[in-house]
Amino acid sequence: MQVVFLDSKTPSTARYTFEGADIVEYGETAFADLADRCRHADLLVTTIMPLRREILDYVTRPRHIVVPRQHVSRLVEHEIASQLEITVHAIDVDPSDWSQFRNAALSVVLGIMSEK
Does residue 23 sit in helix, strand or coil? Predict the structure, then answer.
C-alpha cells in the first residue's frame, strides 16, 4: 500500500515503511505538485491541501482519503469522492498536534490493511 501525507509537519520529505505500507510524508505540497504526488497513492492524508474534482478525476488510484473531521467539508468534495468510490476517513484529532494526528492516520492505514 502506498500512503502519501501531502502536508505533514516534517521539515523535508520523509520516506519509510510502516507495517508493510510504503509511506511518503511531504512537508508541504504546492498545487502544481499535487497531481504527481497523488498519482501512485492508495491512501492520501491531507490537513491543508483540498482534494477537488480536477485532482480526483485525474488520479483515480487513491481509494482512501484521511482528513481531520473539523476540516472534512473544506478538504474533500464528498459527492465526487462517493462517485469515484473513494472512502473518506474523518478522524477526530486536531491536526495541530502532528504526532497524534499522524498516529491516528497510521491507525486507519492498519485498519485498511487488516481488511485485505
Answer: strand
